[in-house]
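sry for the spam today, last one i promise. struct tokens for design, 246 residues
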């Protein structure tokens, strides 16, 4: 019974004050080892798969309908793969598969691990701004990045597989669903997100070092895009599980 608590047993709402996402393109075969058998990489030109690092300043995370003062304010760092899943009805769903989740609040680590399968850990986060530049750093997680948030949309990274921003926005995240695979019961858990005022803006990455991405041992990985969104209301529906018959 207690294990079912981790299956997103109720809807949750939050406010994204700011979300910065860096997405890396890797050859498709490079991500297969990280995915459960029910999921497939969501690819561009049937060649490139994508792993993203999302950094989100979240306000008021709470069960949907609860008053704001009961919410959690925290910083989230999430590493996820863009994937697809074909459900029992035969519909192809786009979504994300979580590899790692970090937060700067121990209370969020506790609650996140009680009600999700995202395996939260706690880390340090330092944010600095200087003019139009934003720096986010963690000593414990060994990452640092610097981006320019100037008013003009940036050019795509030099080695990006995308030629246009409209192509890149398909892999800006988050996608409609987040998937977990429950191996013991052979179930796929689907959590659907609902967003408002979603206008991702391309930003210029000045410098970055991300130890977790390096430790994945990916060959041929390139920075594909970098997006910022701000002031976005968001909520997640109650999780739904179905038996995978693959």
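last one done:
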């Amino acid at each position: 019974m207690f294990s079912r608590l981790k299956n997103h047993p109720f809807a949750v709402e939050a406010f994204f004050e700011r979300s910065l996402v860096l997405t890396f393109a890797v050859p498709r075969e490079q991500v297969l080892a990280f995915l459960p058998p029910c999921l497939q990489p969501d690819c561009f030109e049937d060649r490139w798969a994508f792993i993203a690092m999302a950094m989100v300043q979240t306000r008021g995370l709470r069960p949907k309908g609860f008053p704001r003062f009961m919410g959690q304010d925290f910083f989230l760092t999430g590493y996820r793969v863009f994937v697809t899943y074909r459900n029992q009805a035969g519909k192809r769903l786009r979504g994300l598969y979580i590899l790692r989740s970090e937060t700067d609040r121990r209370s969020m680590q506790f609650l996140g691990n009680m009600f999700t399968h995202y395996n939260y850990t706690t880390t340090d986060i330092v944010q600095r701004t200087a003019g139009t530049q934003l720096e986010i750093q963690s000593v414990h997680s060994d990452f640092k990045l610097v981006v320019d948030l100037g008013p003009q949309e940036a050019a795509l990274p030099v080695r990006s597989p995308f030629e246009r921003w409209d192509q890149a926005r398909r892999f800006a995240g988050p996608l409609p669903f987040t998937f977990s695979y429950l191996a013991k019961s052979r179930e796929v858990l689907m959590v659907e997100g609902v967003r408002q005022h979603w206008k991702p803006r391309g930003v210029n990455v000045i410098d970055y070092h991300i130890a977790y991405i390096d430790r994945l041992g990916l060959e041929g990985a390139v920075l594909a895009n970098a997006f910022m969104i701000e002031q976005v209301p968001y909520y997640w529906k109650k999780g739904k599980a179905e038996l995978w018959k693959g």
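Residues 106-115 form the longest helix (10 residues). ok im logging off now
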